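call fold(seq) -> tokens
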Amino acid sequence: MTSFLAQAQEPMTRAEVLADDPVWLILIKVVALFGFGVLMTLFMINWERKVVARMQHRTGPNRVGPNGWLQSLADGIKLAFAEEIIPTSADRKVYWLAPVISATPAFVAFSVLPFGPQVSMFGEQTYLQLVDLPVGVLVVLAASAVGVYGIILGGWASGSPYPLLGSLRSAAQVISYEIALGLSLFAVVLYAGSLSTGDIVDAQQGGWFALLLLPSFIIFVISMVGETNRAPFDLPEAESELVGGFHTEYSSLKFALFFLAEYVNMVVLSGFAVTLFLGGYMAPWPISAIGDGYFNTGWWPVLWFVAKMLIFLFLYIWLRGTLPRFRYDQFMRLGWKVLIPANLVWIVMIAGVRAINTSTDVTTGQKVIFGAVAILLIVLLSLLIPEKRVEEDSGVPTTGGGYPLPPLDLEVPKLTPRQAALEREQRRRKRAEVGAGASTAGGSSATTTDGTGKEADDGNV
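ret:
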């Protein structure tokens, strides 16, 4: 009986509290998450245009609404009433389904993100999270991967070469950067001891993983930008090469769904990065120490979560306004030859450090020796990587960046064939005029008659 009472008095876990939510509260959370995704999309579109305009010394949107902040809403209404044009060569079923496949998983990923601790909503104790799954991290990765199928199917179903090229690029891109993104989560899961997003946030009460696992954090941020097809990794769109990329043949609400999916994915992965590396909804250190953790209770953590999320969203805008688009070979080289090998080396180091820390037989001196040997091995491996050099006797002149120049005999002629013919004609006429003048100056004495009775000129003709 005593053990039964002790079990009854134990606090409920996060998953148990969320599983006990009534249906009406679940519906409120679903509507709130959907509205948050749509509002953040409208805000991000306008914020991006204003920030990039400020970087380029322009004004940006300033007509619709207060200081132009309703411009994205007006654009959305315009898209809703725009004429829809469907290519005759399109596969209509897949063409209609692709934008839905792209947008739906983006909203599904919101369900496992914890926005705050336990609060009271209309008299019900609940967490500011829709559901806490034991594999919440994998849900976000799966939703991000499934969303790419919408891009691939949209490009294929359009029946046009440029969208098809964009969709093929997207397939290669998600394979390359999904691996780096998944490997960067290994160290976080290892230190947190769980795949639950709520448990990962709770594990960072002693310190954020962004500081403890800095290489994983850097690789995750780079892979996150590549996963969302944003500049400088926006190769599936590539307006300067592929007209508009995978959505070239889309218009009206279907184009708006692709647009919505892109920005919702940015918001989701920004919130995912906050959850994994920046302590989730917990307040930063100076604020968290005020009032014995008062600002980590109630509805305050929602403010910290959104503020941290906006930092990553600003990073997206900053990169777009600063960096040019990568070449495709540079993009693939970064994913396969830099991010993935660096991730594997970092995982081995983290696993070794964890094994040494958990072992009671290893002394502090042995730990220092192990660290020095690991650093020495990394330096030696970096020295063994052959440097790419251009052979001097190859006969191919190169620029300063190591790229070959085109053949130097392919020079543009100074004159077109027509201009050259006209110039030759003018020289011939000048020579004829000079010859005619000389013959006139010689008079009749300079002329004779040949056997045919015609006059022949003595001078130079």
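The two ends are 133 Å apart (CA to CA).
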